[in-house]
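Q: Protein A?
A:
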Amino acid sequence: MSHRLVGRNRPQQVIEALHVASESLPAAQRQARFARMAASPRRFFDATNHLYWQDVWPEWRLALFGGWPETQTWLHGDARLHSFAAVGHAGQPIRYGLTGVDRALIGDYQLDLWRLAASLVLNIREHGELSSKALDRALWALAQGYRERLDALREGQSAKGSELHNTKGPLKAFLGKVADKQHPGRALDKWTELTEQQGRRFVPQPNKLANLPVDVASRLKRLIENDYPQTLPKPVKEGDEGHFRVKDTARRLNTLGVEHYYALLEGGARGEHDDVIIEVVEQTPPPAFHLLSRADQQGWRKLFPNEALRHAAAFHALAPHTDPYLGWLTLNDRVFAVRRVAGFEKRLPTHKLKSAKTYRRLAHQWGGLLAEHHVQAAAALHREPARFVEAVCRRIDGREEAFCESVAAFATRYADCVEQDYRLFTEHFMGGAS
C-alpha cells in the first residue's frame, strides 16, 4: 500500500485550506463567499490570501533579490490591483494608494510585489483584452516602476505621492473624475438618513448593513464612549467628550468571518452634517503569522500584545494620511481596531481598460506607488531611513533585467497555479459550476 504525502498533495492542501478558512461562517455567508469566489480565477485569488502565504512562506527565490533583514518592511499583506483606491477624507486631499492594513505584517518586500504582479496577470486574463506579449510588458513595467522609484528615492528625490496635482496619464484622468463626482460627506449619505424624529440614523441595507441586537449595541456604545477614547493617538480634551457620543450602531455584513461594526458619533456640535462614522473591525493574526516559527511568534507577541496594536503600528507605517480616530477596544474577548470610515473610496475600473499602453503606464505607476509605501513603512523599522532603499537597490544593481524577469516569471506561473486551484475549487465545492 502506498503512502500519500499530504505535503505533496496539492488538491488536498487546497481543499483543506478552503475548509479551514470557511468553517466558522454560517451556511448562508459561506455560500455567498463561495459564489463570489466562483465568478473567476481573479475573484478566487482575491479571496484566498491564506493560500498565497502558504505558498510563498518560506520561498527560496526571495534570496535572489532580497532575503535580508534590511530588505524587510511593513507589508500591506494583500497587495492587489483592487487594493488600490482613491480615498477622500474631510479636510484632506484625495489620495490614491493601497487601502486597509488588516492583514499587514513585517516581511520581505518581494512578497507584496509578487502578489500585486500575480493580481495584474489574473485581472488582464479575466478580461482577455491583451496578448501574452502585452501582458509580459505590463509585468515588466510594474517591476520597473518599483525599481525606478527606489532608485529615485536613493538619489534623494522626494516621494511623489498620489494626489491629483502630481499624477499623470490615466491615473490623473481617473482622479480628476473622482474629484468632480465625489465629496467627503458621501459616507454619511450612503449609510445614514436624517429624520425629524430621531435625527441621523443608519439605514439597514440588504447584504451590507443590519441592525444590532439591543444587548450588543448597548455594550458597543458603552465601550466606544468610555474605553476606546483612552486608546486614541491624542488624549481627548476636557469638554470634548460629547464628540464621542454614540448616536447609532450597526453591523457591517461581510463573508470574511470577522465581526465588523459601524458606529455613528456626534462629532462636532454644529449639527447633523458633521457626524462621524467609525468602523470597529475584529483583528485576527494575518495568515503568515501561523507560518512563523514558535520563536518568531513569541517575538511578534512581544511587539504586539494584541492584533489591534499591530493594526495601529501598520497604519502609522503604511497609510499616507493620519487618522485621529485610530484606536482599539475589546468586546467579548475579541480585540477590534477602530478607525474612521473614509468619506469615499473609489477603485479604478480596470475592467474598462482596453489598450496595452494604458495597462503599461498604470502598471508602472502601481509599482512606483508600492515602492513608496514600502519606503515610508521601512522608516518605522530601521533607525536609518535610507537603510531599506539602499539594501534593496544593492540586491538589484547590475541585474535590473533579471529582477524584472523574476517578477514576471513568478506572476505568470503563480497565476497558472491559481487558475488550476480555481478549477479544483469549482469542481469540489460548486459542483463544477464556473
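Q: Protein B?
A:
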Amino acid sequence: MINRLTLITGTIQTCEALQTQLQDLIGKYIDITCFAIDDYVPASTTDPLIIFSSRLVEQEATIHTFDGCKTMTALRTINYQYIEKLLDLEAGTKVLCINDTEEMAQETIDTLMESGINHLHYTPHTTGNNAPEDIRIGITPGERAFAPASLEQVIDIGVRLIDITTLIDILDHFHLKQPLGGTISKRYTGKIIDLSRKLTSINKQAARLNQHLQQVVDGVNDGVMAVDAQNIITIFNPLMEKYSGISSTFAKGKHINKIWKNSSIIPFMTASKEESVYLTWNGFNLMVYRIEWDQHDNTLFIFKNADETILMEKAARKELLKTGYIAKYSFDDILGTSEAIREVKHIARKLAKASFPVLIQGESGTGKELFAHAIHQESDRASSPFLAVNFSALPEDLLESELFGYEDGAFTGAKKGGKKGLFEQADGGTLFLDEVGDISPKLQARLLRVIQEKEIRKIGGTKNIPVDVRIIAATNKNLSLLMEKGEFREDLYHRLKVLFLPIPPLRERKADIPILADRFLTESSNKSMTLSKETSEELARHQWFGNVRELKNTIDYLTTVSDGEMITRKDLPASDFFQKPAQNEKAEQSLADKEVTKEILTYLFLCKENYERASRKKVREHMDKRGVPLSDQQIRRFLEHMKAEGWIVSKQGRGGTQITPSGADYLQHIGQML
C-alpha cells in the first residue's frame, strides 16, 4: 500500500519550501502532493492524511471536502539556515516582523523568542499598516512583498519549516515512527547542535570583546559612566570611583538617583538639554560631557578633570616653546589705538578665521611677523605648530632641505635616518614664510607645487607626503614689480595672495608712538624712566623709515645714554643715527601705490559710466572685495594724492568723488605700464 499525504499551504512559496522539506526527509516512504490556496486546491481528495500549514489555512480550506481523511495542522519553526543573519544584529535593535497577517507575524515572533532569538525588540507588521518611524530594519519569513518602503534593510529568514513534533506525528500516522523517527531526530538534533556551536562562538567573541572594551574604559584618563533608558548605571570605571567616592560594584545596576541623592549633577544627567557642564564635585573640578545613543536610549557621561587638562595643555605648550613650534604673540601684543592699526587688526582677525594663504605686505619693521603669529593664535590651528623660515637668511640649498626635508643618504653630510622638513613639522598648523620676495626661482616652483597639491617630496625621496599646512607669507618688496621683471612667478603670487594684509608704516599711525614708546621704555630699563614733552614731540615729528623697529632701537639708545630718569631732548641721537628712505624702496613703494591707484581709478571710471555716486565708503568696500583692504586713513591719502594730480574731483552734496578726463588718460597710461 502506498502512503500518501496532501499538504495545503497559503502561498506558492510556502508550498514549494515545505514540499522540499518533506520530500527530503520522508519522500522515500510517503507520496507527497502539495497545493497552495493562492494557486489551486482540488474540491476533494482521497489521500488519507491532510496537512495544513497553519490554522488560518485550515480555516480557509473548510469550503473543500475531505471526507474520510485525517487532518493535521502543522506546528512550524524557524529555518535555522538563516538564523545567523539575526544573530548579527545588535542587542536591543528594533525590528518589524512582517507577514501576510498580524496573527502570522505574531506567531513568527513567538517562534523566534521560543528559539532563543530574544535579543531583538520585535513589532508585528502586516500589509496596510504604517511602519513606526524609529524602526529601520524588517525581518520576514519569505513575505518580503509586504515590507514597507521606509525600511532601510529587510532580512528574509526563509519560510518557516514544519516542526519535528509534526513530522513525528506524520510518521506515527503511517506507522513509520519506529524505523524512521530516530533518523529524523538525529538530523534535527544535528542542526540544533550546529546552531548551538554558532551561538557559543558568538557568545565567546562577545565576552572577549566586552572584556577588551572594559579594559579600554578602565584605562582611559577620564571618568566614564553609562546609563540605560531607565537611568540604571551600566558602566562605572575606576576614575568614576575616584571622583565620586563610590565603588563600581555598588553603583552598577542602580538608579542614579539612589547613588547621588540631592547632588547638583542629577539635573544635568536627567533633565538638562546641555551637552556639557562644569562643576566642582568632591573637591574635583570637572567638565562633564553627555553623549547619547538614540537607537538604544543609552547615555554616556565623560568626566574630565579640568585641572589636569590645564596642566597637560601647559606642558604641551612648554614643549612646543622648547622646539620653537608655537606662536608667541597675539593681537594684544600689537599695540596702538590709531584708526589705521585698529582697522588692520580688525581685518586680520577676519583673515584668521579662514584657512586660505595670507600675504602680508609692509615696510621693514612694521610688525609683519607679529601679525603672522597673531593670525595663527586666532585661527582654528592655534593648538597646532607654528613654524617660520626667513628666505633672506639662508642659501637656496639649505632652504630646500629645511623646507622639504631629506632622506637618509640624500647628499653628503645628510643626517643619518633623514630629516623632516618644516612642511612636515608644521602639518596641521601654520608655516610663516618671511621675506618671500627673496625666494629663488627653483624654490618658487617647488613652493607652488606644495600649495597646489598639498603634498611634498623629500630631497632624495620617491614618494609624495600629504601635508595640511596654512601658508602665511610676508614681504617688504613689491611683488608686482618683481613679476614684471620676471623675478617672481605670477601663478605663485596669486596663490599666496588669496588673502592680503597691508601693514601701514609708523609714519601713517603717529598717534601710536607714545603708546609704543612707553612700552619700550618699560621693557628697556629697570628704572622708572619717562620722556620729556620736548622729546615726545620730537619723536612724533620724525618720519620713522625704519618703523616700529627703529623706534624700539631709539628708545633702547635713550635709556642707555640718559643720566637721569627723565629723558630729555639732548639725549636724542644725531640725525645720521636714523634710517633714511632708500631710493629703490621709495620707487617700489610708489609702484605698489600705483596698483592701488589704478584699482581706485578703474572703480571711479565705472561709476561715472553707470551714473553712480562714488563715496569714500564705497571706494573702501570695493577695495575690500578686490582683496586689498585699506583703512579710512589710507583711502583718504590715496584720494588726496589723486586730487592733487588732477585725476579726480570731489563735488559737494550728492556728487561724490568723480574721475576727470585727466584721470581717465592716466588710467589708460598706467594700465599699459602695469
